[in-house]
Design a protein that fits this description.
The chain is of the alpha+beta class. The chain contains 19 helices and 18 strands. The chain has helices at 11-34, 45-65, 76-90, 93-110, 121-138, 147-160, 165-182, 188-193, 198-215, 234-243, 275-288, 310-320, 359-367, 383-393, 408-420, 433-441, 449-461, 502-514, 533-544, and strands at residues 9-10, 118-119, 265-272, 289-297, 300-307, 322-330, 348-356, 371-374, 395-401, 424-427, 464-470, 475-477, 480-482, 487-491, 494-499, 520-526, 549-556, 562-566. It is globular, with a radius of gyration of 25 Å. It starts with 8 loop residues before the first strand and ends with a strand.
Length: 567
């Protein structure tokens, strides 16, 4: 009798798991969004889970890319740590934040393997238990019938199972699937809407992907209706929710989730703080609102809360440490929190979606009518985040400005996805935010779409771009060898100047750019640049180059000390 080969979890299996889970959530995203009625019926649970997992998968791919094309592969510990960190910094919404903590809990156990190539069934059982327990601890007021219940059931089933990783993973999946089916009986809002918990539905998809990654055998697809389940479409699931008397109205079953007069804002941010400060922060935010979830550790946290006073929630983060990547979403009219009916929103004919490197430019682009995606230093947006921004723009035609050469392929993937949803998208390959400013300046929504895209592309292409930054380490450049701490002047993406003084280097860069002519200089000054650099450069241009105008913007925390555009 042939012996069944033992299954285990290694770095490659983690990579495969992330890819399979991302595809599973991509297939189920609209369906999960449609059944989302708890804790807020805002229809974005599937999207938030997808974006969170996409960030985790991207981080794992980066670890493998670091090993190149050789035979060596990262250790299991490297892969799971990357997965957890990626999920933490990319977590979206209540459901995504909890998923990030589930992955972090698993990583805490699996990373104990050190340099080991793989782990076994008992370790996976411990990892699933740590995941469920840590996620429950991260939620201020756990509620049964949610993703927390499904995660606990998965861990319970895994503990009862013996054997290798494949056996444990399959037991966890079946336990989670059974628990998901029971969620309508545990939470009244689900029973009234006739659906299972949306977050739990997403977790079952992720666990199904784990089974396939470890065993090579695909699990059966999971429909989202209540018991008995029937596949249905996303539209049918959404219609089922809408059919519930009073759903989305004052006092209706969907309003039970947080009360018809509940908080108006969702606030999310990353936070650098120590454990003691976070303990105080939890207490303060719990008093301010509801749906509080704080996940992370080792100095980095992801904070999620629903509040009426968004400013107070952010201020609490400032007192605790350093908050960044702050996202504030107004639930708006017609939400379960307000109990008011939302009037149908007409699609705009055309919109611009732009990636921007700092809060200052985000404000500038927003004032010009663009929908923005903030790209923090070292944290480029994923394609799913760009797709979500295109949807948020709510237009028939969208012009997409990536404003970074490294985002070309990401933006192209997002544009392709949006086109499959019936949105006409034109991607202008802007390589810097100053090129995006030039494109936005000539944007005219009343023009024919093709003509508008041509004019914006022409304006961006006619704008030379540069940046001044500080070298992080010694390296070879097109201008010679630079040392850590040197000031670099990059023109059109290549290092052209190596200096020691920010203002002097910026002046040299500007002179080289203006040698080829120009009529307008755009300066975007970052928070860490010397305060006098803009004034000095404005004076230099005025005294040296006749008929050349200068405009200055404050970019905030944008990575580069200075962005320069000449057109």
């Amino acid at each position: 009798m042939a012996q069944v080969p033992q299954t285990f979890l290694d770095a490659l299996a983690v990579r495969t798991w992330c890819g399979l889970a991302l595809r599973a959530l991509g297939r189920a995203r609209e369906e999960i969004d449609a059944i989302n009625v708890y804790p807020v019926a805002d229809g974005d649970t599937g999207t938030n889970l997808y974006l969170t997992l996409e960030s985790a998968a991207t981080a794992v791919e980066a670890v493998f890319a670091g090993y190149g094309t050789g035979c060596a592969e990262p250790a299991l510990a490297d892969a799971v740590r990357a997965m957890a960190h990626g999920a933490l910094i990319g977590a979206r919404g209540n459901s995504g934040t909890i998923l990030a903590q589930l992955l972090r809990g698993m990583a805490q156990v699996l990373a104990d393997a050190g340099d080991a190539a793989h782990t076994d069934g008992p370790a996976l059982r411990l990892a699933l238990r740590r995941a469920a327990d840590s996620a429950r601890q991260a939620v201020a007021h756990p509620v049964e019938g949610t993703v927390l219940t499904v995660a606990s059931a998965a861990a319970d089933a895994a503990e009862r199972a013996g054997g290798d990783c494949g056996t444990v993973a399959r037991a966890a999946y079946e336990g989670a699937r059974a628990a998901l089916a029971a969620t309508p009986g545990q939470l009244a809002v689900l029973e009234r809407a006739g659906v299972v918990d949306a977050g739990g539905r997403g977790l079952v998809a992720v666990l199904g992907a784990l089974v396939e990654a470890v065993t090579g055998e695909a699990v059966r697809e999971i429909p989202s209706r209540g018991v008995p389940w029937s596949p249905g479409t996303a539209a049918e699931a959404h219609a089922r929710v809408e059919e519930v008397p009073g759903c989305g109205t004052e006092g209706g079953p969907c309003a039970d989730a947080a009360g018809a007069d509940g908080p108006a804002f969702e606030v999310i941010y990353l936070l650098e703080a120590d454990d003691t400060a976070v303990t105080r922060l939890r207490a303060r935010l719990d008093a301010l609102g509801d749906s509080l979830v704080v996940v992370g550790g080792d100095g980095l946290w992801n904070v999620h809360v629903h509040v009426d006073d968004a400013g107070a929630a952010v201020e609490a983060g400032v007192e605790a440490g350093r908050p960044y990547r702050i996202r504030i979403t107004h639930f708006g009219l017609g939400d379960v929190h307000t109990g008011r009916e939302r009037p149908p929103r007409e699609r705009a004919q055309r919109a611009v979606v732009a990636v921007v490197p700092g809060e200052g430019l985000a404000g500038l682009y927003t004032e010009a009518g663009a929908t923005t995606v903030l790209a923090r230093p070292g944290e480029p947006p994923a394609s799913g985040e760009l797709v979500q921004a295109v949807r948020r723009a709510h237009a028939r035609e969208v012009v997409l400005l990536p404003n970074d050469a490294e985002l070309r392929h990401t933006a192209a993937a997002a544009a392709e996805q949006a086109r499959t949803e019936g949105i006409r998208v034109a991607l202008i390959p802007t390589r810097s935010a100053v090129q995006g400013i030039a494109a936005l300046a000539v944007h005219e929504p009343e023009r024919r779409f093709d003509e508008d895209v041509v004019q914006m592309t022409s304006a961006a292409g006619a704008t030379r771009y540069a940046e001044v930054a500080v070298a992080e380490h010694e390296s070879w450049t097109t201008a010679g060898i630079c040392q850590a701490g040197d000031v670099l002047g990059l023109i059109d993406g290549d290092v052209a100047v190596i200096g020691t003084d920010v203002t002097a280097t910026a002046r040299t860069v500007l002179d080289r750019m203006l040698q080829a002519g120009g009529e307008l200089v755009t300066l975007v000054v970052g928070d860490e640049a010397p305060r006098t650099v803009a004034t000095h450069l404005e004076t230099h241009v005025r005294e040296t180059y006749l008929a050349v105008d200068t405009v200055v913007y404050h970019g905030g925390r944008q990575g580069a000390l200075l962005l320069v555009g000449v057109e």
